[in-house]
Amino acid sequence: MIGSPYVATEGRDRVRRVVCPGSFDPVTNGHLDIISRAALLHDEVLVVVGANQSKHGLFTVEERVEMLRDVTSGLKNVEVGTFRGLLVDFCRVNGVQAIVKGLRAVSDFEYEMEMAQMNYRLAEVETLFIAANPVYSFLRSSLVKEICRYGGDVKSLVPEVVFERLQERLGSPDHGASSGL
Ligand code: PNS
């Protein structure tokens, strides 16, 4: 005879608060896809910019936060902030139940799996993966910056406010290839 199914009830009445961490240098339409889908699934979504290695970015941590706040302003259960140190410590202090990450392609899997398993090992914090919209499977911030720097069109890859900031920061684009021959 099959017994009654086990139903986990502990914590059922708690707010389901998750974190979407990242560098967000800058936020792309791909990030926004994952954040907005996480916001549909959970009560609260904390989008946090990792500030451990802030010096190497194109944008400062404050600028990244500003852009994130701007582009998520229509999502009422999304809050934007920063964190330093270990992500699992941020989760513990802020009562976060799970980390939400987007998976674009198989190439993301190894790195993300490693972090997910380490975060569980460190503090039993779960990681949930959302499969990226295939429209954005090739999209990452570093590529956007490179394309923009050399005069390529990134308008459809980032929110309008980010596009404007990229234009300001990278100046007038260096159009056309040169061979050096
Ligand atoms: O957008 P990214 O660069 O993939 O974001 C990486 C980030 C910030 C989520 C990751 O480097 C991180 O969690 N850093 C905090 C330090 C930490 O907890 N390291 C251990 C991870 S197992």
Short description:
Helix content is 38%, strand content 17%. The chain contains six helices and five strands; from the N terminus they run βαβαβαβαβαα.
Structural account:
This protein has 181 residues and is an alpha/beta fold. The chain is 38% helix and 17% strand. The chain contains six helices and five strands; from the N terminus they run βαβαβαβαβαα. The protein has helices spanning 29-41, 61-71, 87-93, 106-123, 141-149, 160-170; strands spanning 17-22, 44-50, 78-83, 98-103, 126-131. The protein has a five-stranded parallel beta sheet with strand order 3-2-1-4-5, with helices on both faces. α2 (61-71) links the parallel β2 and β3. The longest helix has 18 residues, at 106-123. It is elongated. The N and C termini lie far apart (79 Å). The relative contact order is 0.18. The mean pLDDT is 91. The site of 4'-phosphopantetheine (PNS) has 10 residues, from β1 and α4. 4'-phosphopantetheine binds next to β1 and α4.
